[in-house]
Amino acid sequence: MVALAVLVALGGVALAVITGGRPAAPDGNAVTESRIRDLAAIAPVVGRSATPPATADPVNPENAAPQSPAPETPASQPSGTPGPQGADSPGFTSTPPRLLVISPSTLTEQSKEDISRLKYVQKIDSFDGGAVKVSGVGLNLLAVDPARFRAWVPRAVADQQEVWSALARGEFVADSSAARRLGLVLGAEYQVDDGPRLRAAASAALGLPGVDGIVGEETGRRLGLPPGVALLVHGPEKATAVLRARVGRLLGSGSQVVAVGGSGTAKAGTGKADTDKTAPAKTGTDKTAKAARVTVGRPGSYLELYRASAEVCPGLSWTVLAAIGQVESSHGRNNGPSSAGAQGPMQFMPATWKAYGVDGDGDGVADIWSPYDAVPSAANYLCANGAAQGGKKLEKAIWFYNHSWSYVSKVLAISRGYAAAYP
Predict the structure, then answer these.
(1) Which of 48, 122, 156, 243 is the most buried (most CB within 10 A)?
(2) Which are the contacts of 275, defined by CB distance < 8 A and separation ≥ 6?
(3) In which band, very low, low, confident or very high, does the pLDDT at 4 lie, cut at 50, 70 and 90?
(4) Most distant pair of Cα atoms in the chain: their distance
(5) Smallest Cα–Cα separation from 278: which of 9, 5, 6?
(6) What's the average model confidence in pLDDT over 132-139?
(7) What are the pLDDT digits (tens) for 279-315?
(8) CA 6, CA 102: separation in Å to the nearest integer?
(9) Is the pTM of this model over 0.85?
(10) How many angstroms separate the CA atoms of 3 and 210, rounded?
(11) What is d(CA 385, CA 381) in angstroms, rounded to the nearest whole number?
(12) Are 103 and 231 in contact, with CB atoms under 8 Å apart?
């Protein structure tokens, strides 16, 4: 692995050909008429209960009864390991970073001592860090000790217990802006090139320019991240520019010294605060925001429901929603949860549902198990990823739904079948 060499955003790049958080769909070949359902005869049913087929369907393997979900790992620290205190707990002192220093090699103890003795420096701490690649796309990561690192993040993040529990479980916490930019799906697993898989368990507004996420120290060692190459510096906010100049002179041109704005991220190479607003931290323990309302009512058949839901995303064909509904749950017959935790007739991961779930029937609740909410939510998610533009954008939007190109081929093939059956 290489050190964090360039702290610039990987704008416009999406992770490609990675392992999603649930099993990829079987390969999709040409669709036969036997695989096209009579959607007008299938009535949506609300709730977790479904009626799976008694035996596996050899023509439609996606209709097989779902496996029992694997037990979830408790979101807690290992026994005997105290969890981080809340930001208002006695003994907690927030020390927002003013500088992020990236060295091409491990910072020596002498260098760190020299920095700590500079005027205005009140606290420093060093962490491992480096760049890894997922399907050729670079991710800049820090490997941290949660007990020490917690003081360096915004107070709202310090209180997000799921962030610290995820690190203790050896999982990956993405910076929220990086998660949006790269299309990361919380709960999904990503294969590091020539390395282990990482589960994206949570996202948070870390506020460190160029840092795409954090992992625990042990995970960092497994990834081969160089030790002690990142340094955070705290001091008076008004002295940031002076501190940056002095630390830069001390370390020389081989190191990067990046100002971190008092309100969050700063642009690399400047002392000015980033004008992009950082979204609130999203973790698996966040409460769901008030559901967005996209009224499709309660149609009496899946055919009507798919057609009404497509109107959420003008330009998206209802047949794409129907194809996804068939592959994911056979139109509500197998609602899960899947072994990876995907739920409902459109098989959303709960974290993704929090971001894209809508109230489709106007009852005031976005219910992951209700087809009247799940189908328009799928349209909402696809639309957010460019599905309405058609062509390659549609293919990529479907790929975001389930990170498998064979899944994309299957969905599109079934979609063509529905278009022929319902001209």
Answers:
(1) 243
(2) none
(3) low
(4) 76
(5) 9
(6) 86
(7) 333 333 333 333 444 578 888 899 999 999 998 889 9
(8) 9
(9) no
(10) 13
(11) 7
(12) yes
